[in-house]
Amino acid sequence: MTLVQYKEAFSTEKTVTIETHTSNGLRFFLEKCREESPNYVLDAGPIFGSNIERIAPQTSRFYIHDLFLGFREKQKNGRPGDSFWELLDYPPNCFRGILLWHLLDHFEIPDGEILAQVCEKLLSANGLIFMTTLDVGASESQKGGYVLGSDDSLRFCPLASHQALPRHQRPIRGLIDIFHHMTTTKSFLYRNGVREVVMQKTSSS
Description:
The chain has helices at about 5-10, 25-35, 50-55, 65-75, 110-120, 170-175, and strands spanning about 15-20, 40-45, 60-65, 95-100, 125-135, 145-150, 155-160, 180-190, 195-200. By secondary structure, the protein is α/β, with parallel strands linked by helices. The longest helix is centred in the middle third of the chain and has 14 residues, at about 110-120.
């Protein structure tokens, strides 16, 4: 799918205002990414046209690779398995930042660990990961993605294609621990149950 097709497909999705919050985590992530040049950033999905329009100008190059699409395809045949990660065929140490959003909420821990290893390999020294997760006890009905507004707000957007995806609600420590070469630099918990975490790759990894 081309960039234009992504923007046409997703930019008209309606959002639910009750889920809106100001994203301190994403703001911090983008500020840190801009401190180095070149700052190539990968968005792992779900992809929204307005996110592309607002984030891409802040990067040297903005890559979009919707892993949710690949995950749903592999899910039809059982666990994603190792072959799923072959979709991320980028050279090592090439990204300043990776936007994982809430992808790990839908993975079993073994598959999440594989994803974490791949991301750590793709990140440059001191590279950053931004991810969101629903706090334990948050509404199970929330399945979709987040649309970035001009005021750094994130508005929840339900996606019909995500309703069949499994969700595994875990304490945040369970997600952080699968990244063996990352340090948590910022963590924010909002009243709507969304937690944002920014992690940084250690220089020695």
